[in-house]
Amino acid sequence: MTKVRRPENVYKAYHAHVYFDRETEDVALNLCEEVKHKFDLKVGRFHKQKVGPHPCWSCQITFGSKHFEVLIPWLDQNRQGLSILVHALTGDDLKDHTDFAYWLGNPVSLNLEMFR
Which of 49, 87, 110, 116 is deepest in the core (most CB within 10 A)? Predict the structure, then answer.
């Protein structure tokens, strides 16, 4: 069994991708709206389709290392069963989504072919 890596604050910038489906859409919407207002962070559009390497519907949160130590535990405590991919933004998309990727909740297999 592969151990899920927990997020570490070692990079300047990050994305958190909140994954959802039709049944969990309202939970994700409420979570992301609360992040937007509570932390004053940029929250992207709600994609009700697969986008990029993400195999699920998703919403992206952009944040920096200064928010990491407060945001990550808050997301973990408030995700209500949603899976959240947290990854670094280093400019190397493949490594960002593999070597520099962490999970809150259950990991989901990404479609990495676009980065190869």
Answer: 87
